[in-house]
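Hi all, posting the design record for the shared folder.

TITLE: backbone redesign
STEP: 1 of 1
STRUCTURE INPUT:
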């Protein structure tokens, strides 16, 4: 878009925002307890897939860093391959999904929704609830508020926006996903007793 003849390359910088180190173990505990963890993010599909594979939302068995990215232009038999257990779906494709697509996606083991808008987050929660699933949503921003409100259990981060906190049922004071797992363990213990 512009001439680079009079420019000299000085350097490049890369930023990384790695997941907290306790998150992969917390997600493993969720899986052991029969809890599915689905990632819904505004990140680019490739970034979302990378993070999801680092924290085991998408395991190596699900394709890991090579898990398929949903492509609406592919034929049904390729797009809905029963041998693939992981999938990354971009928010821009959600409006094109039919009932069979939703059924396929929500039946996968590793699921990531990327580039999602607030209303799309709410729609994802509604689709899960139609399957009689109890849905808990975590979030911290204004954009998460519709999904927090729609969820069976909305969990806002303590450092999050006031609107997210008002929409949620619980506020996680330490902003640590692993604390949710500890809370579930305590709750199940109380229920058992």
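Okay, here is what came back for every position:
SEQUENCE:
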């Amino acid at each position: 878009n512009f001439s680079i003849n009079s420019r000299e390359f000085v350097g490049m910088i890369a930023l990384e925002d790695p997941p907290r180190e306790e998150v992969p173990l917390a997600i493993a505990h969720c899986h052991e307890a029969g809890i599915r963890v689905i990632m819904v993010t505004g990140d680019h599909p490739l970034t979302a897939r990378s993070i999801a594979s680092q924290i085991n939302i998408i395991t190596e068995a699900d394709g890991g860093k090579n898990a398929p990215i949903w492509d609406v232009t592919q034929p049904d038999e390729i797009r809905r391959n029963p041998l693939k257990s992981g999938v990354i779906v971009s928010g821009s494709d959600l409006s094109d999904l039919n009932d069979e697509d939703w059924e396929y996606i929500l039946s996968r083991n590793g699921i990531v929704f990327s580039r999602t808008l607030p209303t799309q987050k709410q729609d994802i929660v509604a689709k899960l609830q139609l399957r009689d699933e109890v849905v808990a949503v975590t979030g911290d921003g204004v954009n998460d508020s519709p999904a927090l409100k729609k969820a069976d259990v909305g969990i806002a981060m303590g450092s999050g926006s006031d609107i997210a906190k008002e929409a949620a049922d619980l506020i996680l004071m330490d902003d640590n996903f692993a604390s949710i797992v500890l809370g579930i363990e305590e709750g199940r213990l109380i229920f058992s007793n």
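COMMENT: The chain has a mean pLDDT of 94.
Let me know if anyone wants the other runs.
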